[in-house]
Design brief:
alpha/beta; single chain; 7 helices; seven-stranded mixed sheet; 191 residues
C-alpha cells in the first residue's frame, strides 16, 4: 500500500514526518513525501486540461499527478493562515481536481492543517466542493484536523489517528471492498 504525503506547509520542521514514518513502517505501508513548491501556478480556467489531460503550465503538477495516480491514499499537510489553507494548497487542489479528477477518483484523503495557535480551526468549504467533484473519499474525523507547529502530545495523537484511519480506508478500498467495513475503535481518545 502506498500513501502519498503532499506538503504545502511553509515551515522547515519535519515533526509530522517523524510521527507517521514509524507508523508506516510498522504497517508495511510505503510513504512518498512531496513538498509542493510555492511557485505552483494557479489555475486560469483555460480548459486545456479537459480537452487534452495536460495543463497549459509546465510545472511540478505533472510529477504530482504521476505520484497521485500511483498512490492508494493521500494525506495533505498545509499551513493555515487565519483558518484558511495556504495559497499553494488551494492552487494544488484546484488544478488537481479540475484537470485530473480521474486519478483522484475513489482515493481516500485526509487534510491536516498546521497552525501556530491552539485555538484555530480550518475552513474547507471551498475545498469540499472540489473533492466532491473529484469523487474522493474524505476520511471524516481526521479530515480537516488542525495541529500546532509545536507538535505537543495531543497533536501527535491527532496525527497518528488521521494516518491510521487513512491507512485503514486505503487498505479496504485496495482489497476491493465496495463499501467500507466498520472502522475499528481508535486506540487513542482525543479530548
Amino acid at each position: 500500500m502506498k500513501i502519498l504525503v503532499l506538503k504545502t506547509e511553509n515551515r522547515k520542521d519535519d515533526g509530522p514526518d517523524q510521527i507517521i514514518q514509524p507508523m508506516a513502517d510498522a504497517s508495511g505501508a510505503e510513504l512518498q513525501f512531496i513538498s509542493v513548491p510555492s511557485a505552483l501556478h494557479p489555475c486560469t480556467g483555460c480548459g486545456k486540461c479537459t480537452r487534452t489531460h495536460t495543463c497549459t503550465f509546465d510545472d511540478a503538477l505533472g510529477d504530482i499527478v504521476n505520484a497521485v495516480s500511483d498512490s492508494d491514499g493521500i494525506l495533505f499537510l498545509t499551513s493555515l493562515l487565519y483558518g484558511c489553507p495556504d495559497s499553494t494548497f488551494i492552487n494544488l487542489i484546484k488544478r488537481l481536481c479540475t484537470s485530473r479528477s480521474d486519478v483522484l477518483r475513489q482515493k481516500p484523503v485526509s487534510v491536516i492543517g498546521i497552525t501556530r495557535s491552539q485555538a484555530s480551526g480550518m475552513d474547507l468549504s471551498e475545498i469540499d466542493n472540489l473533492l466532491d467533484c473529484a469523487s474522493m473519499i474524505r476520511i471524516f474525523g481526521p479530515y480537516g484536523m488542525v495541529i500546532t507547529t509545536a507538535m505537543n502530545e495531543e497533536d501527535a495523537i491527532r496525527l497518528r489517528t488521521a494516518f491510521t484511519n487513512l491507512l485503514w480506508a486505503a487498505s479496504q478500498l485496495k482489497n476491493g471492498h465496495p463499501e467500507l467495513e466498520p472502522m475499528p475503535r481508535a486506540p487513542y481518545r482525543i479530548r
